[in-house]
Design brief:
The structure holds 2 protein chains of 2 kinds. Chain A is an alpha/beta fold. Chain A has a single domain, classed as Thiamin diphosphate (ThDP)-binding fold, Pyr/PP domains (Rossmann fold, 3-Layer(aba) Sandwich), CATH 3.40.50.970. In chain A, 40% of the residues lie in helices and 19% in strands. A 7-stranded mixed beta sheet of chain A has the order 3-2-4-5-9-8-10, sandwiched between helices. Chain A has a two-stranded antiparallel ribbon with strand order 6-7. In chain A, helix 9 links the parallel strand 8 and strand 9. Chain B has one domain: Alpha-Beta Plaits (2-Layer Sandwich). In chain B, the strands form 2 sheets. Chain B has a two-stranded antiparallel ribbon with strand order 1-4. Chain B is elongated and about 45 Å long. In chain B, a hairpin with a 5-residue loop joins strand 2 and strand 3. By secondary structure, chain B is an alpha+beta fold. Classes of the chains: A alpha/beta, B alpha+beta. Chains A and B meet through helix 1, strand 1, helix 2, helix 9 and helix 11 of A and strand 1, helix 1, helix 2 and strand 4 of B. Strand 1 of chain A pairs antiparallel with strand 4 of chain B, so a sheet runs across the interface. The structure holds thiamine diphosphate (TPP), iron/sulfur cluster (3 copies) and magnesium ion. One iron/sulfur cluster binds next to helix 10 of chain A.
């Protein structure tokens, strides 16, 4: 059969990058964390910097990121990844350093570390996975939860009068002189995932030039926390998350 | 004519999320009635219309799919 001839090494166009280990991801079916990991790993692979990259893992669903990225990794206390990354980058300025953080990690308990690292213009990449919820601990409301959005701690929907408005960390850090490149992307479609990869690659290249903090938000889904199928969660994300968290570059270096 | 492609699916690591099915422009993929050892209905090819665009593999959160595409004719 003709098809069998197509499957041969010279025709290979896409396979899992070796910068990801072969461990089976523990994420729920359809969760964007897996695709986000892979886009970042592909960038490390293509830039040939696997041996010079150091990642800092958060607390949250991606706490086990160090099992999956085949680069040097350090686990940080909840929200403290930018402080840990600061220490790593300052002692080893020639390394490529990134943090990988959820919205509970980055925009709640770690708000201070995030803002101050960006304000100091620390020379590393912050990858921010915003799924509007505390996924790991059972779908509690996060600072990023949308107005009216139900979570286990806002069962009637987020009431902004008593619970505050969703925090737009990405717009906030873009205001700080220390940040160099600030963008908001997603990984739920092939086109969006490829755009995210291009953004992550740019960010790593700017890091080489010591231009300041690069901040890549990835608006992502949490099918389990949102209590939806993966397909429903991606549609819901487009219809509800993107109007509040619009995709695109917010700050690009001149 | 579009070049022909093909995919190899690692059914043991598939979680049946269907994200790849939505992403395929040629309806090549569908869920099997069978389940893998973890109990997930896994993805399989249902026709030979694959063009090797890799859309399915790019969005698969679990890196289940490997993609091949025939070379351009000289
Ligand atoms: C100091 C501390 N406080 C609270 C917790 C409980 N906790 C674990 S993960 C988490 C929130 C994770 O949410 P997010 O960062 O959005 O990650 P996601 O799971 O959604 O990817 C919380 C509050 C903790 N582990 N440590
Ligand atoms: S709880 Fe949500 S964020 Fe965590 S792995 Fe499951 S779908 Fe992903
Ligand atoms: S490579 Fe493209 S055409 Fe082939 S199965 Fe995947 S998405 Fe469909
Ligand atoms: S996207 Fe990946 S894990 Fe999900 S159904 Fe397709 S092959 Fe399986
Ligand atoms: Mg979250």
């Amino acid at each position: 059969m003709a098809e069998n001839n197509i499957i041969s090494p010279e025709n290979l166009v896409y396979e899992k990058t070796s910068v990801l280990t072969d461990r089976v991801l523990h994420y729920c079916p359809g969760c964007g964390h897996g695709t986000a990991h892979r886009m970042l790993a592909e960038v490390v692979d293509e830039l040939g910097i696997q041996g010079d990259t150091i990642g800092v893992a958060p607390v949250g669903c991606s706490v086990l990121a160090y099992y999956y990225f085949d680069v040097d990794m350090q686990e940080a206390a909840h929200g403290r990844a930018p402080a840990v990354a600061t220490g790593i980058k300052r002692t080893m300025p020639e390394k490529y350093v990134f943090t990988y953080q959820g919205d509970g990690d980055l925009a709640a308990i770690g708000t201070a570390e995030t803002l101050h690292a960006c304000n100091r213009g620390e020379n590393f990449l912050i990858v921010f996975i915003n799924n509007g919820i505390y996924g790991m601990t059972g779908g509690q409301m996060a600072p990023t939860t949308l107005p009216g959005m139900k979570s286990s701690t806002s069962p009637y929907g987020r009431d902004v009068v008593t619970m505050g408005n969703p925090l737009k960390m990405t717009e906030l850090v873009a205001e700080l002189p220390g940040t160099c490149f600030v963008t908001r992307q997603s990984v739920h479609t092939p086109a969006n995932a490829r755009k995210t990869k291009r953004a992550l690659k740019k960010a790593m290249e700017y890091q080489k030039q010591n231009k300041g903090t690069c901040f890549v938000e990835i608006v992502s889904n949490c099918p389990s926390g949102w209590k939806m199928t993966p397909a429903e969660s991606n549609k819901w994300m487009e219809e509800n998350m993107f109007p509040y968290y619009p995709l695109g570059d917010i700050k690009v270096p001149s | 004519m579009a070049r022909k492609g093909d995919v190899v699916i690692n059914i043991e690591s598939c979680k049946g999320c269907e994200v790849c099915i939505t992403a395929c422009p040629n309806q090549v993929l569908a869920l099997s009635n069978e389940v893998n050892s973890k109990g997930y209905h896994y993805v399989m090819k249902v026709n030979s219309a694959c063009v090797g665009c890799a859309n399915c593999a790019v969005v698969c959160p679990d890196a289940v799919i490997t993609v091949y595409r025939e070379k351009r004719k000289q």
